[in-house]
Every structure is written in structure tokens, then in C-alpha cells.
Task: inverse folding
């Protein structure tokens, strides 16, 4: 018996080595190349993340990721077509192969990963329920809300989450129920409550609607954990690899200080081996996935690193003016992290 | 001499002290309700500007609708190609008008020709190919798409509905069974489920490579559902006809099809015109259901444009504007059918 296992292990080992040299087949990548564009499923309309602007161009943080992928795979960030998807159709549209991936604020959960036949390829936005409060109230974190009143939509997940969270910590808050989210935020704006609660991304969109948006801040430390990222089908590991490492690459670029402005100079002059590998100056990393070695160079040049994309779409360069919060590099107090390019 | 029916407005509204009081009360109520709406929509509204910052008034901000007008009408259809949907619309109007106003003896032939040529012309103009730049259906949207879905779904629904209604009356058992099964199936399934299944389940079942366009699938699904309703509307007309009509036609030596198309259907359709119009208006409004599969018709594009952070909070404007357009279309349709009824009713 043992010898059979051993022989099997040796065979499997040598087979995997052979495959690694040859590249695993990737039907999705082949289809993308033949088609000449990536099919990307996005949200129908979510401020800052995915929406069509006045000119009808798709923009936003989730949209930017697909542009980055197009730059890496096809060398051109414009070679991507967007399919807006509703909540009901997002999984089936990916499962049935109508899109190559979803980049659509979908929370990564165990049961989704285990039962839908889909994989989540990293995190491009740490979403979580948090609070919006008035600047002058001097509230720094959710704990400071002890004794405060909070406006919520009755029966929402947010109401339950908030009630549980404060109860567990023995903090007293008054939760004021409203029929709809819009009523709750209007009541907050008119001063009936000290805080309003929703996800970070949603609050950023809501804050713009307030009478004086600048008077309000969104607490950066959330009370729930709803990470979101690009989604692919099971199977086609090489495509999954590409999707995962393009995202990692944009985060690594920010970490290493590579931006769309300095990418040419960095590629030519940087002594840092990780930068050189990332930008394809050495190491042949692109070829290992069946892409040109300058895949990440194209991404950074055309779309920018994660931070640039964030600031442009939801951050300070946008109308939403959302702080980085958890979506800051781990070295700067956030959660963004990428394994090294080694 | 008084005839019992009041004749002048003054008499109707202020004829007796009681009517006068009721009139005044109702007028006050209307003014009370309408004033804030008019103030919001017209008086306090902002009309001029470019961005959200120009929306300083307390009322509606129509700047938003102005900035997005192109999208509301055409979706993401390329700006330089928007003459094509315009031309297609014009062709349908002229073609339809020509059929309606043609002399009686030409009408049938002209109608059949239009029925074949116009839909093909429309698809070619909108979709491109054969000399025109191809434009994928994902770029279609807005009012243009609403009209497209309404027209093409009814092009499936009306002929199919008539056939089904005739089939249901047929003396051949098999045909009757097929018609009944079809009608009962499509009438019993919620339209939203049909659209959903057509959009999501079909690609899962179909072998790869055979892709029917997403929009086409939705239009066909919608067309089948409405066909079932149409069939029942037409059946009402068929059953209202005295049996003697067909018997007389047969006695004259007319075949089934001749009797049906020259004697039975013209009368039956006239009777069921209000019901058919009703179904058609329902269809126009049901087109909004394609939103569940993210096909951006007028309502869909209005909703999607609310997500632009540069225009966030324009919900009222978007819904009032798109709702107003739906109302205009449906109202025009119902007036048109009323005028047909009175004309034909003579």
C-alpha cells in the first residue's frame, strides 16, 4: 500500500512540476483574449463604487478594479465591458458564465464561499456597520455613544446589530425606529438623534445628502465585519490566480510607493527587488501566470495603485470624501494587506 | 323648462346651497393638496445650471434631469448614433400613420407589409450591422428601450394572442388543448419570474456558444405572458359575437380562414379593443420589470443615475420625471383607443 501512495505522491509531484512549467490551461483567459475584452459584473448603482456618470461611463472603486484587470490581461484598461447586476441575479450571472468575474460589493461569507461554487479573491473594501455623528459631538468611536440616541430603520439588520452591540457592552443607547432608511437619515439631519447607522460605503453616499455634509463624520471603526472583493467561479485556477494577484498588485504598489506618476521612473531606476519584480523589470512574474511581464506596470500606469483609485472614487478626491479607515495599509493602521511579491 | 340634467357649469357647481358648499370644500381641498406639489415642481424649482451645486432652490432640481436627459431617453447609446433610434421611431410613426390613414382597399396589404418591414428595419437601425456600426443591446436604454420592448413584445403578443384565442375556440381537440395549456401556463406564471428565468436559467441550460441576446430573451418572455392575456381579451370579443355570424359566413361558402379574417375577427377585435388597449397599457408598465435582470429601461436608468455621487439625493426628481413620462404614454394610448372606439362604433 505504502509504495503505491509513494509512487502516487512522486507522480503527482512531478506532474505538478510539469504543469507549473507549462501553465495550467485557462479557458476564461483564452476566452477573454479571443473576445478582446473582459466581461465584468458590477453593481447597478452604488455611489462611489459603481455607477454610470453623466457621460454614461462606468466609474467607481469596484469598476476601477475591473479596469485594472483589463490592463493586466489585455494591456488596455478600456478593454472591459460592464454588466450591471441586481442583487437577485449577481450569483447566477457569474455561475452561468455570462461574466468573467463580479466586482460588486458582495460580502465574503463562509456559506457563500462553500455553497455557491464561487471563490472570493481577496478584499478590495472592508465594509462594516458604523455610525455617522456630528463633528461637534466629539465622538471618536462607537463606545463614546453611551447615552446617545440613534436613528435606524425599523426591522433592519442594522437595528439588530446596533442593539446587540451596545447591549453586550452594557452601554445605554436610545434606538429610535423609523419606517424607512430615508426617514431615519432625515430625522438624524434635523437633530432628532445623535447618530445614524449603516455600512461605511452607504453612509458615505448618505452624508452627501445631508444639509451640511462637512459637519458630520463617519466613525472609522465599524461594529461589524463585511469584507468585499472580486468573485470568480470555481475551477480555472489560473484565472483565479490572475484576479487575486492583480488586486494584490495594486495594494503592493501603494505599499511600495509606486504610483501612476512615478511608475516609469520606478521601473527604470528602482533598486528595490520587489518593485522590480512587480513592474516586470526582473523575475518574469507575469510569465508565470501567462501574462506579459509588464502586467502590473500597465495597471499602475493606466489605473493607478489602490490608494490612488480609492481617493479618486470614494476618498478625498471624490464627492464622498470617505476616510481610508480600515481600508488603509496595515502599516498605517488599516487592514489592507498583501502577501509579498517574491 | 328644466330637464333634470343641469346644463351650465354654474348650475352644476353652484345650483343649490349644498352643491355650492361641497364645491367650495372640494376646491379648497384640491388647492391645499396641489399647492405644495406645484410649488415644489414649478415655483421653487431650479431650472438652470450644470451641477448639483446649482440646486439652491427648495423645490425640485430639474438641472439633474437636464444633465441626464440624453441617458433617460437613450441609455448608454452612443451619442453620435442617436439619430438611429430617432429615425426608427419616425419610421414606426410614419408607417403606422400610413396604415391608419390609407384607403380601405389598400389598408390590409399595407398593414401586412408594414408588419414585416418595420420591425426588421427597427432592429437593423438600433442594432446595426450591414453597413451600420453594431451597437450591443447592453448600451440600449432609457425611454427608447421602454418603447422598443413595448412594441416588440406586443408584436409577439397580439398575433399570438389572436391565434391562441382562435385555437381555444377550435373544434379540433389537440389545438384546443395546446392553446389552453399555453394560455393557462403563461397566465399563471408571474411575469417577473418569467423574465428572471429567461435571463438566468436559459443560459445555464443552453449549450455554450448558443447565446440568445439578453434583451431578446426578456422581450420574448414578456411577449408570451402578454399573449396569454391578449388571448383572453380577444376570446371575450369572439364569444360576444352571435353564433349566426359564422354560420352565415359558412353558408355563403366561405372557408374557415376567410370567414375568420373577414367576418369574425374584424367584429371581435372591435369589441375587445378596450380590453386589448388595457393589456397594452399594462404591458408598457410591465416593461419596468426588466429591471430585475438589470436591463436599464426608463425607470431603470433613472434609478441607476441616482447612484452618481454628483447627483445623489435626486430621488424625487428621477421618479417624478420617469413616472410622468409613463403616464403620458399610457394616457395617450388610452385616448387613442377611445377615439378608435368612437370612430369604429358608428
Result:
Amino acid at each position: 500500500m505504502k509504495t503505491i501512495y509513494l509512487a502516487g505522491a512522486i507522480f503527482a509531484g512531478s506532474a505538478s512540476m510539469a504543469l507549473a512549467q507549462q501553465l495550467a490551461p485557462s479557458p476564461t483567459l483564452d476566452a477573454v483574449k479571443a473576445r478582446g475584452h473582459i466581461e465584468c459584473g458590477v453593481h447597478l448603482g452604488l455611489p462611489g463604487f459603481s455607477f454610470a456618470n453623466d457621460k454614461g461611463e462606468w466609474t467607481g472603486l469596484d469598476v476601477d478594479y475591473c479596469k485594472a484587470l483589463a490592463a493586466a490581461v489585455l494591456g488596455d484598461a478600456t478593454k472591459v465591458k460592464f454588466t450591471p447586476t441586481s442583487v437577485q441575479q449577481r450569483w447566477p450571472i457569474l455561475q452561468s458564465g455570462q461574466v468573467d468575474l463580479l466586482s460588486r460589493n458582495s460580502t465574503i461569507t463562509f456559506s457563500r464561499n462553500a455553497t455557491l461554487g464561487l471563490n472570493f479573491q481577496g478584499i478590495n473594501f472592508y465594509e462594516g456597520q458604523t455610525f455617522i455623528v456630528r463633528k461637534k459631538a466629539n465622538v471618536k468611536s462607537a463606545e463614546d455613544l453611551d447615552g446617545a440616541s440613534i436613528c435606524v430603520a425599523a426591522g433592519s439588520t442594522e437595528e439588530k446589530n446596533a442593539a446587540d452591540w451596545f447591549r453586550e457592552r452594557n452601554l445605554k443607547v436610545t434606538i429610535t425606529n423609523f419606517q424607512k432608511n430615508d426617514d431615519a437619515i432625515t430625522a438624524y439631519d434635523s437633530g432628532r438623534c445623535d447618530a445614524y447607522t449603516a455600512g461605511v460605503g452607504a453612509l458615505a453616499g448618505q452624508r452627501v445628502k445631508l444639509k451640511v455634509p462637512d459637519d458630520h463624520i463617519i466613525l472609522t471603526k465599524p461594529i461589524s465585519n463585511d469584507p468585499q472583493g472580486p468573485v470568480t467561479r470555481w475551477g480555472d485556477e489560473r484565472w483565479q490566480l490572475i484576479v487575486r494577484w492583480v488586486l494584490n498588485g495594486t495594494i503592493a504598489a501603494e505599499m511600495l510607493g509606486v504610483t501612476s506618476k512615478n511608475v516609469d521612473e520606478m521601473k527604470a531606476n528602482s533598486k528595490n527587488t520587489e518593485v522590480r519584480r512587480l513592474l516586470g523589470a526582473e523575475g518574469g512574474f507575469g510569465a508565470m501566470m501567462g501574462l506579459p511581464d509588464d502586467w502590473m506596470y500597465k495597471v499602475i500606469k493606466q489605473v493607478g495603485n489602490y490608494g490612488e483609485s480609492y481617493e479618486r472614487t470614494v476618498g478625498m478626491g471624490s464627492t464622498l470624501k470617505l476616510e481610508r479607515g480600515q481600508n488603509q495599509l496595515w502599516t498605517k493602521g488599516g487592514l489592507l494587506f498583501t502577501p509579498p511579491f517574491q | 323648462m328644466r330637464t333634470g340634467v343641469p346644463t351650465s357649469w354654474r348650475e352644476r357647481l353652484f345650483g343649490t346651497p349644498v352643491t355650492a358648499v361641497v364645491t367650495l370644500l372640494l376646491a379648497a381641498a384640491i388647492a391645499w393638496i396641489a399647492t405644495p406639489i406645484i410649488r415644489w415642481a414649478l415655483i421653487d424649482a431650479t431650472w438652470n445650471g450644470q451641477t448639483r451645486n446649482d440646486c439652491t432652490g427648495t423645490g425640485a432640481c430639474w438641472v439633474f434631469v437636464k444633465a441626464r436627459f440624453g441617458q433617460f431617453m437613450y441609455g448608454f447609446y452612443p451619442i453620435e448614433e442617436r439619430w438611429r433610434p430617432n429615425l426608427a421611431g419616425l419610421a414606426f410613426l410614419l408607417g403606422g400613420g400610413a396604415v391608419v390613414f390609407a384607403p380601405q382597399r389598400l389598408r390590409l396589404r399595407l398593414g401586412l407589409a408594414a408588419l414585416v418591414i418595420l420591425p426588421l428595419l427597427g432592429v437593423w437601425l438600433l442594432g446595426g450591422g450591414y453597413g451600420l456600426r453594431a451597437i450591443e443591446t447592453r448600451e440600449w436604454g432609457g425611454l427608447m428601450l421602454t418603447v422598443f420592448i413595448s412594441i416588440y413584445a406586443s408584436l409577439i403578443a397580439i398575433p399570438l394572442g389572436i391565434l391562441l384565442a382562435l385555437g381555444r375556440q377550435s373544434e379540433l381537440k389537440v389545438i384546443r388543448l395546446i392553446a389552453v395549456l399555453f394560455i393557462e401556463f403563461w397566465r399563471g406564471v408571474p411575469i417577473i419570474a418569467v423574465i428572471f428565468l429567461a435571463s438566468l436559467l436559459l443560459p445555464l441550460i443552453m449549450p455554450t456558444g448558443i447565446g440568445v441576446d439578453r434583451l431578446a430573451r426578456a422581450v420574448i418572455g414578456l411577449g408570451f405572458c402578454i399573449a396569454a392575456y391578449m388571448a383572453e381579451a380577444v376570446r371575450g370579443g369572439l364569444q360576444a359575437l352571435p353564433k349566426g355570424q359564422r354560420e352565415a359566413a359558412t353558408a355563403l361558402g366561405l372557408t374557415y380562414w376567410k370567414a375568420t379574417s373577414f367576418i369574425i375577427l374584424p367584429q371581435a377585435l372591435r369589441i375587445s379593443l378596450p380590453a386589448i388597449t388595457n393589456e397594452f397599457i399594462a404591458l408598457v408598465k410591465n416593461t419596468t420589470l426588466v429591471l430585475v435582470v438589470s436591463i436599464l429601461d426608463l425607470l431603470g436608468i433613472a434609478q441607476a443615475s441616482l447612484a452618481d455621487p454628483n447627483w445623489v439625493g435626486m430621488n424625487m426628481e428621477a421618479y417624478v420625471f420617469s413616472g410622468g413620462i409613463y403616464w403620458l404614454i399610457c394616457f395617450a394610448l388610452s385616448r387613442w383607443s377611445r377615439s378608435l372606439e368612437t370612430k369604429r362604433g358608428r
In short: The mean pLDDT of chain A is 90.
